Amino acid sequence: MLYISRLVVSLTNIQSVTLGTVSTDILISVLLSLAITLAVSLPAIYCYKLHKNPFDVKWMGPLYFLFFIFMAGVNISRFSYFASTTLNPETQSWIFAFFIALFACYCAMLGVESLSRFSFFAFVLMVTALLLMMISNVKGYEEINLYPVINNSKELIFRNALFLASNNIEIVIFLCLADRINGGAVKSFVASVTASNTTIFVLLLFMTALLGDSASLQSFPIYALFQLSKITGLERLDILHISFWIMAIFVKTVLLIYCSSLSVKRFENKYKCIAGAVGTFLISLLLIESGASSNIKPVMIMVPFAVFCVIIPILTLIFKKKNRGDELVKGL
How far is Cα 207 from Cα 141, in angstroms, rounded to an integer? Predict the structure, then answer.
């Protein structure tokens, strides 16, 4: 689930999570973003190990609820923009957002077990489609397109890395779900972050080598890679891309709505899921109608990331006492 959640951001619209010209130096930014992500994840990891989870603080619940539905709305609006401009221009963006939020609401009510089983199927389809795309495009791989390696300034490369890292909201998802995993939560989290960023690195390497300077001219360059792909009997790999893309955005939306329901301790789960889905749709609608869905400003992502993924876990480590219930279970 975390692998899909992270990867879908770059698949949606790479220009929406990068700054400057799309060129080879974006690979440097991806590697830096991985290092930054692992570094800023340490407070959350220690919160889990020391049983000082910020989700145990009652007044923090509503804030995390708003954070989850905001990020869900951002992701839905990005996909809806793609769907309404590329898949079916005759359908308005808000219609896609409405149906994704509606179906995600129902699935969030079913719980994380059902979602994890569906996520495994989506994961297999995603990996298969990505491998087919890379195999079919090997012949078109042009190393000359990778040069010059540096096109953006050093400052912009680092800012790009920060922006990419700030899209790793899986840190908060880890904090929310870690106690529900039977062991190996930290190992699974680190593995998912590393694997997803490695996949992004390979995808962007192929994108730069195949598309060259034209990558910056494409609204959806990763989708363009699938349009270039041709294998005997499978000459429409872009259909595979659309299929796993829809599954991936669905998995992430369900995951965020489900986590939003866990953030609030009161009320029944179904009512919290409905509230999360309604809030998600309203936020996505606001972004769509304002025209911000195709160009989310970095500050709108980086500030919430810094607050909820880094600052709050650090403050929790410093000021919160250990959860006595967790200590008792550990002692038993």
Answer: 9
